[in-house]
């Protein structure tokens, strides 16, 4: 079967410093893939490129017929501002934005579905709580409820269980596995290698460049993990992307990675 998402020689840079370098490979439809690698390996950058938040400096991402709405994305906790004055119910309903009318009004059905989703993640009765008042685990449950409402074909999770209590991790991992059983393609950045080996059949191991991508039992070998660590130790944050000739334009001052929407 052909891949749902294909990366072809993908390089993503920040001010010309490559965070993801020459990565090629594909995610099969309905696959369940862990992304693993050292800190600063380009894991978050790769997810942002896949959803179209960051544009390739080189190479391309083929998303076939997938549209923006087909992607559900859970950012790394550090990237989320929880001081924003918004209730649990509204946070969840934002997952239904694609169903909202032209003026962004939520329907009664959206509210009912949000309540139902909160029930599934174990947060009945939390609708009117301010998100700033929740524990890290409770907030992660809210974000999973939002993903439930979004009902996306492809779900990308960036370190969904980092700094989350064990019970919440167990409950939310179960939800991830259920999403995959329903036929959704799931891609998750994970730190816990035991969890990866136990539940994720495919692994993409990255240290800015690809270390390996395939069956978890083959990829998560000690030789590959040592290689990833050695590659991380060699990083030179000042090195520039090897852009093809003729693409040597000077970036504007303060130019961050170029952003583009998914077509
Ligand atoms: P990981 O998620 O694997 O820890 P990231 O994708 O967050 O790695 O980062 C990869 C590299 O890109 C790191 O060197 C990081 O410092 C750099 N980086 C990440 N985000 C930005 C940004 N917004 N601006 C400049 N550099 C960034
Ligand atoms: Mg990250």
UniProtKB/TrEMBL annotation:
GO terms for molecular function: ATP binding; ATP hydrolysis activity. Keywords: ATP-binding, Ion transport, Nucleotide-binding, Transport, Zinc, Zinc transport. SUPFAM superfamilies: P-loop containing nucleoside triphosphate hydrolases. Residues 249-263 have a biased composition (Basic and acidic residues). Residues 5-232 form the ABC transporter domain. Residues 237-263 are annotated as: Disordered. SMART domains: AAA. One of its GO terms (biological process) is zinc ion transport. InterPro entries: AAA+_ATPase, ABC_transporter-like_ATP-bd, ABC_transporter-like_CS, Metal_Ion_Import_ABC, P-loop_NTPase. CDD domains: ABC_Metallic_Cations. Residues 237-248 have a biased composition (Acidic residues). PANTHER family: IRON TRANSPORT SYSTEM ATP-BINDING PROTEIN HI_0361-RELATED (PTHR42734:SF5), METAL TRANSPORT SYSTEM ATP-BINDING PROTEIN TM_0124-RELATED (PTHR42734). Belongs to the ABC transporter superfamily. This is Zinc/manganese transport system ATP-binding protein. It comes from Rhizobium lusitanum. The lineage of its organism: Bacteria, Pseudomonadati, Pseudomonadota, Alphaproteobacteria, Hyphomicrobiales.
């Amino acid at each position: 079967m052909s891949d749902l998402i294909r990366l072809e020689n993908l390089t993503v840079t920040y001010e010309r410093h490559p965070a993801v370098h020459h990565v090629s490979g594909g995610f099969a439809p309905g696959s369940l893939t862990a992304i693993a690698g050292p800190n600063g390996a380009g894991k978050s950058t790769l997810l942002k490129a896949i959803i179209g938040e960051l544009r390739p400096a080189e190479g391309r991402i083929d998303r076939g017929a997938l549209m923006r709405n087909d992607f559900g994305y859970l950012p790394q906790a550090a990237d989320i501002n929880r001081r924003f004055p918004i209730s649990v119910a509204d946070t969840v309903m934002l997952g239904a934005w694609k169903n909202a009318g032209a003026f962004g009004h939520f329907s009664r059905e959206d509210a009912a579905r949000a309540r139902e989703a909160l029930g599934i993640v174990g947060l009945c009765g939390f609708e009117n709580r301010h998100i700033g008042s929740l524990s890290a685990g409770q907030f992660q449950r809210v974000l999973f409820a939002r993903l439930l409402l979004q009902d996306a074909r492809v779900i990308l999770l960036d370190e969904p269980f980092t700094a989350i209590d064990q019970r919440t991790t167990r409950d939310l991992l179960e939800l991830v596995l259920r999403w995959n059983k329903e036929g959704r393609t799931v891609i998750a950045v994970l730190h816990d290698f035991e969890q990866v080996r136990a539940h994720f059949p495919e692994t993409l191991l990255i240290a800015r460049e690809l270390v390996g991508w395939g069956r978890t039992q083959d990829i998560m070998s000690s030789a590959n993990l040592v290689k990833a660590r050695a590659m991380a130790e060699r990083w030179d944050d000042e090195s520039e992307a090897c852009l093809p000739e003729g693409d040597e334009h000077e970036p504007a001052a303060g130019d961050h990675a170029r952003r583009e929407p998914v077509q």
